[in-house]
């Protein structure tokens, strides 16, 4: 990948992760587990669900903040380090994007068939508050763009690392 394209991709990814982090942080600073449970009716049914949901969101926030911090370091360096940037983008794909689409608490899932119809592709396991639904769907648009832009790192980055490793062994 050309250095200028790689740097541009890092800048775009940095901006999107910063936006996602700000949305997540704003939401997590405003909401409490008890307020979510109270807004949803049955406390026994929803407390465990919302606890898992908030835990997943906190983890996602940490992953996003770490990734955009590392991207910021990469972009601020006097000499752009392509290898470091590629590694960070690979980590974005495997931590942030995978954490969003495969939440540990399995509070929602992606139905990719909806993506082709222009509908929201996130299917919630339980009915959630409108604010949480809006946040999740907003984040899905950001992470869908990131996933499309960074799919290169799913295969090519690993293959490149293997080639370097094999060449070093020779």
TrEMBL record:
| A Pfam family this chain is assigned to | DUF3907
> InterPro entries, alphabetically?
DUF3907
In its UniProt entry, what is this protein called? Answer: DUF3907 family protein
